[in-house]
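Hey team,

Sharing the Host attachment protein run so nobody has to redo it. Sequence (144 residues) first:
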Amino acid sequence: MSDCWVIAADSSRVRLFRKTEGQSIEEFDVMLNPDARLREQDLVSDERGRGLNRSRSGRFAMAEPESHREHAEKTMALELARRLRQARLDGKMSRLHVLAAPRFLGQLRNSLDEDTREQIRSETAKNVSRLDAAAIRAQLPEYL
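Structure output:
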């Protein structure tokens, strides 16, 4: 079993690949986050709260600090970071190549612990999660 993993991810799906014999990769797991694909109004049943502005006449809508969609994206990045940390600790993964949508890549960087972050050999800020394994492999360095 190879200890080199490849991640192809966006906010709604993470595909995990493992290096096989030669230089090819095979998919061994998928993590799904369907909430990241929904519209905000599909995730929230209520409208935002209303506040009263005492210095002026009128009311205003109170905004959430982050949308529910952003929260779902952060949760997915945290879950992936926990999984990668555990794989590193179990000796299943010692090299990591990450191909992710730019926004999700930033979330993942913020979620990874320092020791797991050191295992990253290459990063590509590009959404390739819908491509097949051969096309994803073509985006990676020649030698894994």
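The CA atoms of residues 81 and 112 lie 5 Å apart.

Ping me if you want the raw files.
A.
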